[in-house]
Write a structure and sequence with these properties.
Radius of gyration: 23 Å
Order of helices and strands: HHEEEHHHEEEHEEEEHHH
Strand order of the largest sheet: 6-5-4-7-8
Mean pLDDT: 85
Strand content: 5-15%
CATH topology of the domain at 131-246: Nucleotidyltransferase, domain 5
Helix content: 25-40%
Number of helices: 9
Number of strands: 10
Structural class: alpha+beta
Largest sheet: 5 strands, mixed
Shape: elongated
């Protein structure tokens, strides 16, 4: 598949909710044989429900089971449009705008966006190598005095040059919080570029090459050693908050995080920035549990 497609062409691939369910059912391979009677007779879509029923034994199969859409009463067609809009966006997609575009309530749109971001967090990033820039920043709240971060959330960013990024919300920028994340994300032997923060002081003891830039001495680059790329990522992330979301509330509990999902959305957009919106849509639906390559998107190459 080549090129991008617009929303109008995308909508033509989704003529009805029934078509969406049939394609999802086929994509998961649920209709090959009945799991109960092992009959190979075809299933049919139950009218008014999101399930298929075996013609022989009446066994019912739900293609949305185990996905973020399982307990939702929202039209499956609107779900897929929402996924496409979020992958197509370059600066994030707010719940308020989503509610207007797919014509659902704000509460419904907020939940849909949250679950889509949760699926984005499943995009595994590890084994970053080569030259890796690492930096910490603080998100949310306002400063109370110089270098006061008491009402902000610390965030760690690990960025491979000309590669991918992985961000983490952490309790504090201390070595005990930062080092395990670096060990799990960066391959041994990589050259790590950081600032002079003390949490990075023992990286060489763990098999990394480590160089630091002394920002306090107004040093920003030295022989290719710099953290400008990860700091540029922070700038884009915070601009998307100010321009799209206005503000992000603090996570209420670890099981249902808030900031982490917004970070996952930014990571997903950055890591797949060179791909078409079609490829990003297919990647995200794959994370949710569907392989829609042969069902939803037609060949977009120029004829």
């Amino acid at each position: 598949m080549k090129g991008n497609i617009g929303i109008e062409r995308f909508l033509k691939t989704l003529p009805s909710s029934e078509t969406c369910l049939e394609n999802l059912f086929e994509a998961r391979g649920l209709g090959r044989s009945c799991s109960k009677c092992e009959s190979e007779e075809s299933y049919y879509l139950v009218k008014g429900r999101k399930c298929f029923q075996c013609k022989k034994c009446s066994n019912q199969v739900y293609p949305l089971k185990g996905t973020v859409m399982e307990d939702s009463k929202t039209d499956i067609r609107k779900w897929l449009i929402a996924i496409f809009l979020m992958t197509k966006s370059k600066n994030g997609y707010s719940a308020m705008r989503m509610s207007e575009d797919i014509e659902v309530t704000y509460k419904c749109a907020w939940r849909m966006c949250r679950l889509i971001r949760k699926a984005m967090s499943l995009d595994e990033i590890k084994d970053l190598d080569g030259i890796v820039e690492i930096d910490e920043t603080y998100v949310g709240g306002k400063f109370h005095g110089f270098y006061s971060h008491s009402n902000k959330t610390a965030v760690l960013g690990i960025c491979q040059r000309k590669g991918k990024i992985k961000t983490f919300a952490i309790k504090s920028a201390s070595e005990k919080n930062v080092l395990p994340l670096i060990l799990a994300t960066v391959s041994p032997g990589a050259l790590i570029c950081t600032d002079e923060h003390s949490c990075y002081r023992n990286l060489k003891n763990h098999g990394y090459r480590h160089e630091s830039i002394k920002h306090k001495d107004r040093e920003w680059a030295r022989n290719g050693i710099t953290t400008n790329r990860i700091e540029n990522c922070w700038s884009r992330f915070k601009n998307s908050i100010r321009g799209t979301y206005i503000r992000i509330r603090k996570s209420q509990n670890e099981e249902e995080p808030t900031l982490e999902y917004y970070l996952a959305e930014y990571d997903f957009r950055h890591n797949h920035r060179k791909e078409t919106n079609v490829a990003k849509f297919l990647k995200l639906t794959g994370l949710i549990g569907f392989n829609l390559s042969d069902h939803f998107i037609p060949d977009t190459s120029r004829r």
